[in-house]
Structure formats: structure tokens, C-alpha cells
Amino acid sequence: xxxxxxxxxxxxxxxxxxxxxxxxxxxxxxxAFSYIGVVQPILVAFIALSAIEIPIFDLILRHTVPWPPxxxxxxxxxxxxxxxxxGLFASLRIHPHVAGPAGLRLRNGISVDFVVPWSAVxxxxxxxxxxxxxxxVQLEQFDEGTILNxxxxxxxSVDVMLREPLSVRLPKGPSGPVHEIRxxxxxxxxxxxxxxxxxxxxxxxxxx
Length: 208
Fold this sequence. Notes:
Layout lengths: L1 H18 L11 E3 L6 H25 L3 H27 L2 E4 L2 E6 L3 E6 L3 E10 L6 E6 L2 E6 L4 E12 L2 E2 L2 E2 L3 E6 L4 H15 L6
Parallel strand pairs: 7-11
Antiparallel strand pairs: 1-2, 2-3, 3-4, 5-8, 6-7, 8-11, 9-10
Helix pairs in contact: 1-3, 2-3
């Protein structure tokens, strides 16, 4: 329940920041990379359909259900659902991945947020991959180790190979040691280029 409450609060805070045009500030030397592009048309379509559905459903209830409390409850729930989807959209927009001096900060809305220090990164590559499901966080077990997928729209576009197994914070708690992290970015080539710049400065010769 604590995690659900924190998620709900984070969603509304994200919506407020988005409406006020106050995204979290980036640190010095940090560059943001969005990941919402692949799902943005779907979210916009759902929001538009919900906005159209609310008055239509209310009109139907007005002429078919004689109890105003039922209609009012349905109206409140419909508006809440619409605002919730706006909050989801906002959380994905204002919490991007960030490549900064300390490392690569990976996010998925307000549910995923952790930093991979550059000292833990062996190399970073651009490669599109399809995932078996639409879940944002997916773990895959192989003989070579564990791969953590942070996908968007059932895909990833950047592979981060680690120097040694690393445990990271996930929505349900710390993960077991992972050997590779795969994520989605709208501009994977730019993210990879930026990451390799940091690797070249901190770990000469490690970026391949």
C-alpha cells in the first residue's frame, strides 16, 4: 500500500510540474534523453477517447439511471481516470533518462529511477530489440548472467554492458545482480554518443 500511495502522489506531482512547466532540474553537464516517443500517440489517443467518453456516458446515465448519486460517482471516476492518464503522460515526459558526470540515470516515469556509475560500465551500444511483453521492467536469465530490460512499447534501443554484476533499485525493491541493462531512448544514437564521451574521459579505451 505504501508503494501504491507513493506512486499515486508521484503521478499528481508530475502532472503539476508538467502543467507549471517545472521539470526537475538537470545537474551541471547533464543531458536528458526522452523515451516517450514510441508510446506518445497511443497515450494521446486514449486521453482523447476518454475525454469524449465522459460526457457521452454522463448523458446516457442522465436518461437511464434515476439516481443522481450514481451518475455523479461515475462522472467523478471518469474525470479522475482522465486526469490519471494525463499524470502518466506527464511522468514520462518530465522524468527522462539523464547522462551526466556521475553516470547514466535511467528512468521510467516515477516507477524506475536509478543511476549506473560510469565506472561500472564496460561499453554502450545502439541496438533495437523486441521484448516478450509490454511490462516496463523485465528480467531475463541467461547462462552468461541476468539482463535487465527497461522497455517502452515492448522494445529497447540501447545496450549497457557492465564491468561487473550490479544491483539496482526497482519498483519492488533492489534487484539481484544484473550483468547488462537494456533501455529504450527516442534518440539512441545520441545517448550512446554522449555515454561514450563520458567513458572516454573516465575510462580511456573502454568504450570500444
